[in-house]
Amino acid sequence: MDLQQVKLVIFDWDGTVMDSIGKIVTSLQLAAARLEMPVPAPEQAKQIIGLSLDPAFRRLFPESTQQERDQLSEHYKDVYLNHDITPTPLFPNAHELFDALRQHGYLLSVATGKARRGLDRMMNETNTEHYFHSSRCSDEAESKPHPDMLQQLLAHHQLEPWQAVMIGDTVHDLAMAQAINMPRIGITHGVHGPADFALHHPSAVVHSLAELRQLLTAS
Q1: 63: left (phi over 0), alpha (psi -120 to 50) or beta
Q2: Which of the residues in the chain have pLDDT under 70?
């Protein structure tokens, strides 16, 4: 990866910027229990983080009907917003990273499995909206690992894939970048680890946002 050519840094949100994995898992489990559907084990639930809700539920509940998935989606949103009190802090050094990248001249963006309303709420609560020049959400593009989100962001900024880098904690993030030959960096404090990332030939693997900052501002 030639950092001299990278102009746009694209972040996944859940598990990459925000430590929200625990809340996603418990909210999903509680939603499934409400509907008397099989409650997924934590490791099962983690594997769908980053996907849009309907494709995620198709993977978790392959025998489910569209009506069941629609109901599950509504219950999941209700539990996540109104009932589950699991904290969702930013990972350490997030603000310092964003400040450093902006000062270094990078454009910053988000490509997330969250819906627009959810991302806007989280950015407002964490005071991070001002760092980002653009974003694409699950209700504005095809679900990961389809590269539609990235293609939209590249078109918005009038850039080529080699002028951007995707940062994510799941194979879904790396797979969508790989699909268009975009440089990609896996971060291990979320769902997946180096062995999982290896299948998608990451440009680098880091273990924290502080390490990511060192990597991207080294030049």
Answers
A1: alpha
A2: 219
